[in-house]
Amino acid sequence: MSDPAWLLTVGEVLVSLAMLVGASFTLIGSIALVKLPDLMMRLHGPAKTSTLGVGGFVVAAILDALFFQEGASLHELLIIVFIFMTTPISAYMIAKAHVFRTRGRTVQPLPPTGRPVGWATMDGSDAFRADDLMVKDRGGLPAAEAAPKGVTHDNRAASQ
Amino acid sequence: MIVYASLIAMTMVGLALLLNLYRLLRGPDPIDRILALDTMTTNVVGIVLIGGVLFNTALNFEIALLIALVGFISTVAFCKYLMRGDLIE
Fold first, then answer.
1. CA distance A62 to A68
2. How far apart are CA A21 and CA A26, in angstroms?
3. Taking a C-beta distance cutoff of 8 angstroms, is the pair A23, B12 a contact?
4. Residue A150 banded pLDDT, cuts 50, 70, 90
5. Residue of A15, A25, A33 to mutate when probing chain B, most B C-beta within 10 A
6. Residue of B nearest to A78 (CA)
7. Do residues B20 and A32 make contact, with C-beta atoms less than 8 angstroms apart?
8. Of A40, A64, A120, B76, which is least surrounded by CB within 10 A?
9. pLDDT digits (tens, 9 = 90+) for A61-117
10. Which residues in chain B are contacts of A33 at CB distance < 8 A?
């Protein structure tokens, strides 16, 4: 494969640009992790690091394989698909653990939840809703019609 | 040009790792340390990808994928332990 010289130059510029953009976002995210005062603010920086920073590196790797090696190999996209899927989950888990640990000693009290339990805890109401859907999909069992919604929920909350 | 860009990018990501290490050592709450560890895992994935471009090898992508997987699972496990006091209930 005989590429013209200007194509290789364009490839070098594109790979270098993507790599420097990714490195800049990574550094900015870590500076935010050090400088911001509260954990809920600090959570923003690394989220941008993992999407835009690693995204820049993966784009650089794909372009490098496209221009300078035997064609593009797209299995680098697996990394970015995995990271895009898992970053919101881990950020959600960290925020939930923070809310759960600092309940009762925050500066501003949390708003009421409308449930018998506080924030970031499970009272089984989600499982109750799933049960409700399953019963409705089966075409209405007699037990579901005999027990109204509020009574079952109150019983469950009282028994826990 | 790619070699210089890779070295500059690796230096910047190494500086970011040092900042994460500062937050890991100093973080006032255990959740700060968990967040710093998660960010360090992401940055190590970035360094491995840069190394793959710099040394022209395709083996590094599996390494990066494994590191990302282990980092995600460890973050979820740490948070779960802090929330519930147990991992497998």
1. 10
2. 9
3. yes
4. very low
5. A33
6. B65
7. no
8. A40
9. 888 888 887 766 778 888 888 888 999 999 999 998 888 887 766 666 677 777 777
10. 19-20, 23, 35-36, 39
Tokens standing for A14? 């594109």
Residue A100: list chain B partners with CB under 8 A. 82-83
pTM over 0.80: no
CB contact under 8 A, A30 and B16: yes
The verdict on a CB contact (< 8 Å) between B38 and A94 is: yes
Domains and CATH numbers, chain B: 2-84 (1.10.287)
Mutating which of A26, A36, A40 best tests the B interface, going by the most B Cβ atoms within 10 A? A26
**Sequential DSSP letters for B16-80:** HHHHHHHHHHH-SSHHHHHHHHHHHHHHHHHHHHHHHHHTT-STHHHHHHHHHHHHHHHHHHHHH
> Is the CB of residue A58 less than 8 Å from the CB of residue A79?
yes
What is the least distance, in Å, from the CA of B15 to any CA of chain A?
A: 7
State the complex-level ipTM.
Answer: 0.90
Is residue B55 less than 8 Å (CB to CB) from chain A? Answer: no
Whether B61 and A34 lie within 8 Å, measured CB to CB: no
**What is the CB neighbour count within 10 angstroms for residue A75?**
12
Distances (CA, A) of B86 to A85, A89, B29, B89: 25, 19, 19, 6
Is B61 close to A65, i.e. CB distance below 8 A?
no
